[in-house]
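This is your field. Please look over both lines of this record.
***
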Amino acid sequence: MCTVLILVVLLCTSFRPEPVAGVHNMSLVKSVLGVISSREHWKHTPIFLGPRTKRDDINSLIIWLHRTMEVTSHMVDTSIAAHKHKPLGQYNMNADNAVALFFCHTTQELIWYHLNRSLRRMRPVRLIVALPNERSGSYKALKALFQKLWLYQFLNVLVLHNNQIYSYTPYPAVRFYKVNIYSYPLFPPATRDFQGYVVSTPAENDIPRVFLIRDQRTGQRLIRGYGYRTFVEFLHRHNATLQVTNANQDLGPTSNVNMSRIIQLIMDGHLEISLHPYVDVPEDMGDYSYPLVVARNCLIVPVRNEIPRHMYLLLPLNRWSWLLLLGGVFYISGVLSFINPGNEHSSWHERVGLNFLDGLSRMLFICSPTRVHRPSLRYFIVSLQLTVLGFVLTSYYNIQLDSFLTALVVGKQVESMEDLIDQQQQVLVKHYEASTFLRHVEPHLINGLSRLLVGVNASEQVSALLGFNRSYAYPFTLERWEFFSLQQQYAFKPIFRFSSACLGSPIIGYPMRSDCHLKASLSMFIMRIQATGLLQHWFVSDFNDAMRAGYVRLLDNVLGFQALDVDTLRLGWFVLGGGWLLSVLVFVFEHLRLNTGHKA
């Protein structure tokens, strides 16, 4: 008896019937497609087939699509792995010229992964989900289906089951409803009212995009920054609510957001969007909105190589100009020696000396050491030209020198990666951005620059920059530099400068999950505020808030009145000392010559 029971159990367990192909209401599918065709035309019909779909019904549907609807079809099943499927957007399909058909039985089938992969960046496509007639039509079963559709961010959806048509809305929570086949529009229209939908995201310090301050009167924590203001205004305009997930976290003024952790949360599906704008997000990690700004990413370097004030006298003219003027003095002296009347009775040495002093005085636009009686017309014309030349030359020189005395004059600064290596200027970078930095550098400079990179966390980098640590250079985008440079807008002597050693021009937008439902409406909102100039307005007002909160401060290195001291006139003393030495040598030479003449 025991043996018989064992055999019966074995026979029952070994018998595994093959899954029966589900019967779909193809008449309803064709009716819905006919209604769509009567209102708007489409060209492509991608068809996704689950493992329990009758192939005969599908073949009949494809023939009907080709002959009656005159559209092409593209069939996708589970015979090929999902990651090997190319997105259908690469086959000239888009959300406007396609209607997708999806045949499935449960929410756990592999065909869902193929649907997600194939319709990458095509989430607004019109999607018709056909369920088999024998599938449960209970509220719980349909709710699970719509939650799966919402998980993959499909909003433009119709679900066909038996003779019923359903659609759904995720705002403020997932709920589905019946649809009449003759209703217009048939698919749920795009909405600008999110009906109080809650967007959850953390908020941390990321000056100037997002930062936290305390209201001095109420002590309430407030969030500022053009990235936060844009995001909040978008949610307010679309009737949505922002929930800050780390509202009780105590963040110091030197703390900074860890964007690698934020991106990881988006990849893991724990976060749908971040209010922290960031550079390009790789496709396999997520997506990003329309760019808030496209800014150059260059090195902020300390201002060095200040030129001493005693050298200002030489700066108005370059080296070749000084040599040209020196040659001009000798040339003018030679010309004056031939046309100057009244020096016929002077010795050759006297004429050379007087003509040299005369040429020099013409250049300097000062009184001539010689007196001319009854000058010739030729002498008058030459003297007039030299007077005009001396006036123009000295005027330009004085104007240029005056401008130098009212500003800080510096020499050659860091303008390229080669200059960075030559000056051995260390660069303070975030740990996770060091590899990105080296990817934008020419290959033959990688070894030299890699030794200059100092990796720190984001908070240490911001602390060093806010503390005006001039030991390092910092890679920052232009919009960050424009914010931080407001600290030295009234400074006589700037601390940092934005160099020409750049690492590209990254796109800065909001990172979000792939095919996020907020992308289209958020991108349109960003374009509108850019056109109205709100970003620049928020940029300036946020600096005032950051200054009151202690994040930034105005540099007060105003250079007061400085008298011309001995050091400032160092070059003049050198000229005077050289002149005295030359005079002594000439005097000794003349004295010796005179004594030699008397003895002879």
